[in-house]
Write a structure and sequence with these properties.
The chain has two domains: about 20-50 and about 300-395, Alpha-Beta Complex (Aspartate Aminotransferase, domain 1), CATH 3.90.1150; about 60-295, Type I PLP-dependent aspartate aminotransferase-like (Major domain) (Aspartate Aminotransferase, domain 2), CATH 3.40.640.10. The protein is built from 15 helices and 15 strands. It has helices spanning about 5-20, 60-70, 80-85, 85-100, 110-120, 135-150, 160-170, 195-205, 225-230, 260-270, 270-275, 280-295, 300-315, 335-350, 380-395, and strands at about 35-40, 40-45, 105-110, 130, 155, 180-185, 185, 190, 205-210, 240-245, 255-260, 330-335, 350-355, 355, 365-370. The protein has a seven-stranded mixed beta sheet, sandwiched between helices. Strands 1-2-13 form a three-stranded mixed beta sheet. Strand 9, helix 9 (about 225-230) and strand 10 (about 240-245) form a beta-alpha-beta unit. It is globular. It binds pyridoxal-5'-phosphate (PLP). Pyridoxal-5'-phosphate binds near residues 111 and 183.
């Protein structure tokens, strides 16, 4: 073992520790739910989970995974094009396409993988790819990879600044293909992309729109079909990517949805698809059951929406000024990273698990507590959370 290497790593970690920005892992000993058992802390209320609809422990979703374990075994032992494609993958992909309103879809072991392989599969030398400044890290890395591998031209427009987007598209009017990449919901802000305007700009500039809807699938729109449903433009987005690891059962996995020819292209070209095992059938079956559950129970999506409105109003009344938005991501800006992490630790002592995010996940000086609401919460849970956040906020001098 190279001891120098270990010593260097330890010194990097000690540096983070001294700045108060070292992340610590908490171990849960029960299913992801409104309340969980956390090692060393007993029962705590979770306000940091992407389990937006409470489907992680929904009986139908869990049972579908168990049944698939019996029907298909533990895993695929192969990538898709060799011998890793199971009938449950096809069933899931048909259901996902139906749900988000595209002709086809293709599953991946994570949304990270879905995004990572996408840009390089559709952008070549002479193409222009432009990305919102606050897009998810998986989109940023996907574009960097495409640029390094295929030498496409890339650009970034200021967050949700459509004048900047237009200006940069105009400057690249000679490109063979123009691709606009945006999150549907921006995960650290809880804000929604200006999708109708982005679609119009894409039409005006002969561009295509790729939208990562990971925090919107199952969440936005009357029946949870995402950002396109929220704005009444289902079927108009060229490519939608999303995760199965949040509202859709929360296990893992992601997908790209769009024209059949796109999914066929990904089978040929997407490197995570070509060089990594397929989604385990258990996970595919649970995600399929989650989609079917949401289709049969739109009231679960309505409950999430009502809880979100309730929490946003209550946290304001408690003296905080969260970032505005329509989504269940409710960020309370604290400022310094160490303060956000300290508040999160104090909240844990009060029985609330809410993560403090700081640089480099969010810009310097905008560290925040990111509260996430779930349909699994009860009104009592939300009241309990607001009381605790107020108590800790007063103690920390964040509110008066
Ligand atoms: C917008 C967005 N895209 C992609 C991902 C990655 O999802 P997955 O966990 O399925 O890789 C996340 C997860 O945090 C996300 O928030």
């Amino acid at each position: 073992m190279n001891q120098n290497f270990v010593t260097q790593l330890q010194s990097g970690l000690a540096d983070l520790q001294s700045k108060g920005t070292l992340k610590k892992l908490n171990h849960l000993a029960s299913p992801q739910s409104a309340r969980v058992t956390m090692e060393g802390h007993g029962e705590v209320l979770i306000l940091s989970s992407n389990n937006y609809l409470g489907l992680c422990e929904q009986l139908e979703v869990v049972n579908a995974g168990i049944q698939a374990l019996h029907d298909f075994g533990a895993g695929t032992a192969s990538v898709r094009f060799i011998c890793g494609t199971f009938t449950v993958h096809r069933a899931l992909e048909q259901a996902l396409a139906r749900f988000v309103g595209t002709p086809a879809s293709m599953s991946f072991v994570s949304a990270w993988n879905a995004n990572e392989g996408l840009t390089a599969s559709i952008a070549e030398e002479g193409d222009f790819v432009i990305s919102d400044a606050l897009n998810h890290a998986s989109i940023i890395d996907s574009i960097r990879l495409a640029k390094a591998m295929n030498r496409c031209t890339t650009g970034v427009y200021k967050h949700s600044d459509l004048d900047d987007l237009v200006e940069k598209l105009r400057a690249n009017a000679g490109a063979r293909r123009r691709i606009i990449w945006t999150d549907g919901v921006f995960s650290m802000e809880g804000s929604v992309a200006k999708l109708p305007q982005i679609l119009q700009i894409a039409r005006d500039h002969d561009a295509i729109v790729v939208m990562d809807d990971s925090h919107a699938t199952g969440v936005l729109g009357a029946t949870g079909r995402g950002t396109a449903e929220h704005f009444g433009v289902v079927g108009e987005v060229d490519i939608i990517t999303s995760t199965l690891g949040k509202a859709l059962g929360g296990a893992a996995g992601g997908f790209v949805a769009g024209p059949a020819a796109l999914c066929e292209t990904l089978t040929q070209k997407s490197r995570p698809q070509l060089f990594s095992n397929a989604l385990p059938p258990t996970v595919a079956a649970s995600a399929l059951a989650a989609v079917e559950y949401i289709e049969a129970h739109p009231e679960r999506v309505a409950t999430l929406r009502e809880h979100t409105l309730y929490f946003r109003a209550a946290i304001r009344e408690a003296g905080f000024n969260p970032l505005d938005g329509d989504t269940p991501i409710v960020p309370i800006i604290i400022g310094e990273t160490a303060d956000a992490i300290r508040m999160s630790e104090l909240l844990l002592e009060e029985g609330i698990f809410v993560t403090g995010f700081g640089f480099p996940v969010v810009p310097q000086g905008t560290a925040r507590l990111r509260c996430q609401i779930s349909a699994a919460h009860s009104r009592d849970d939300l009241d309990f959370a607001v009381r605790a956040i107020r108590k800790v906020g007063l103690a920390a001098g964040v509110i008066r």
